[in-house]
Amino acid sequence: MITELSEYLSSEFGIQFKNFDLLAEAFTQASYVNEHPKEHLKFYERIEFLGDAVLQLYVSEYIYQRYPELPQGKLTRLRAAMVQEKSFAAFARECHFDQYIRLGKGEEMAGARNRDSLLCDIFESFIGALYLDQGRDAVKKFIARVIFPKLDLGWFDHAVDSKTSLQEFLQRDGDVDIEYHLLSEGGTENAPEFTVNVSMDGQVIGEGTGSSKKHAEMAAAQAALKKLRQDKQ
Amino acid sequence: MITELSEYLSSEFGIQFKNFDLLAEAFTQASYVNEHPKEHLKFYERIEFLGDAVLQLYVSEYIYQRYPELPQGKLTRLRAAMVQEKSFAAFARECHFDQYIRLGKGEEMAGARNRDSLLCDIFESFIGALYLDQGRDAVKKFIARVIFPKLDLGWFDHAVDSKTSLQEFLQRDGDVDIEYHLLSEGGTENAPEFTVNVSMDGQVIGEGTGSSKKHAEMAAAQAALKKLRQDKQ
C-alpha cells in the first residue's frame, strides 16, 4: 500500500519520497500498529505534531505576505479558518489520502476512514513527513497547490469581511480605486433599507442592499466578489 | 534607539540587520505609534503573528529530533512549556530586549516595559523580523543559543516527568543502561515509604524516597538530574 501511495504521490504531485518508513508512519493509525505487534510499526502522531507546526508557519507566512495591510486580528482569524480540522479534512479528501490510511479492523468498521478528525491528522502527518523527507520548499509547493487557491475560491471569506476580501482580490495585481456609493435610502424607521454599489476605477462591479449602510456595502462587495470569481473560472 | 539596538544585536549576537524599518516595527508598541501620528509608524503585531508561528515550528522540530522516543502527548506538553508567555518573557529579559521597546508615555508610566505579556510579544516579533530579514538559519542559531540550553538547565522539567528527562539527558551522547532498584519498602499501611536508587551502566547516580515505587523512582531521577547538571556547570 505504501508503494501505491508513493507511486500516486509521484504521478499526481511529482513528489518522490526517499524514506518509505517515514511515509508509512505518516499514514498509519495506532489501531493498525496494535493489530500487528510483530512488525514494530510506528503510528503517525509524532509526525503529525511536527506537521501541524509546519502548516501553521507556512500558512502564516503566506497570508502575512499576501495581505500586507491586514491587521493581526484578521490575520489570526483567517489562519484559524485555514488550519482548522474541517479545512484539513477537506484537503485530505481532495488529495485522496483517505484511501491510503492504514487502520485497524475495529476503526475501519467504525467508519474512521471518513472521520474529519482522522483525515485532518493524516493531512498534518503527511505534511510533517514531506517536510522531513523533502524539505520546506516541497511543502511550500504542495500547499501552494492544495491550500492557497482556496483563498481565491472564497473558502475562507467568512473569516475576513467581504470588503476586505474584495480589496485584496482586486489589489493583487496593482493599485485600483475602489469606491462605494449610496444609491438609495428607504424602508421604514423600524426596517430601514440601504442600497449601495461598488465600483473599481469608476466601473460598477456590484450592488447590494442591507439594513445599514455598512451591511449594504458588505452585500455589494460580496456580489462583486461572486461575479469576479465566476468570470475568472 | 534602533541604531543602538542594531549595534547591540551585532555585538552581542553577531546579527547584522538589513532592514531597519522592520526592526523598528518589531520593537514598537501601538501606544508609541498613536503618540507620533505624523511619522506613519507601524507597530509590532503583524510581525509578532508571524514570529509566533516561526517559534512554534523550530521549537517543535528541535524537540521532535532531540527526543526521538517521546510520544506526541509529551512533546505537546513540553512545547507548551517552552513557548508560553512566561518563558518568552524571560528570554526577552535575558536578551535585554526590554530596554529597546518603543512605548507611549501612558504605557511607560503603567509599567508595561516590565510586563510579561508585552515582553513575550516583543520576543515573538523580534523572531518574526529576524526570520524575514535573515532567514530561518539565523533564527535557528539564535534560539539554539537562547532557548534550547534551558532544556539542559531543567527549566521545562515539570512538563516531562523526571524519568523521561533523565533518560534523554543521559542518552544524548549514546546508549546507556539505566536501572532503578528498590532499596527498601517500609512505613505504615497508611503511609508507605519506598526508597529506590538509579544507576547508569551499573554506577549509582541518585536515590529517592516516595509513597509509591513510582514516586520514589521519580525522586531518584530528579536527584540524579540535579547532581549531573551541577557537575556539568
Automatic annotation (TrEMBL), chains A, B:
GO terms for biological process: mRNA processing; regulation of gene expression; rRNA processing; tRNA processing. It is found in: Cytoplasm. Residues 6-135 form the RNase III domain. SMART domains: DSRM, RIBOc. InterPro entries: dsRBD_dom, RNase_III, RNase_III_dom, RNase_III_sf. Keywords: Cytoplasm, Endonuclease, Hydrolase, Magnesium, Metal-binding, mRNA processing, Nuclease, RNA-binding, rRNA processing, rRNA-binding, tRNA processing. Mg(2+) binds at residues 48, 121, 124. Residues 161-230 form the DRBM domain. GO terms for cellular component: cytoplasm. Its cofactor is Mg(2+). GO terms for molecular function: double-stranded RNA binding; identical protein binding; metal ion binding; ribonuclease III activity; rRNA binding. Its EC number is 3.1.26.3. The active site is at 52, 124. Digests double-stranded RNA. Involved in the processing of primary rRNA transcript to yield the immediate precursors to the large and small rRNAs (23S and 16S). Also processes some mRNAs, and tRNAs when they are encoded in the rRNA operon. Belongs to the ribonuclease III family. Homodimer. PANTHER family: RIBONUCLEASE 3, RIBONUCLEASE III. This is Ribonuclease 3. It comes from Limosilactobacillus gastricus DSM 16045. The gene is rnc.
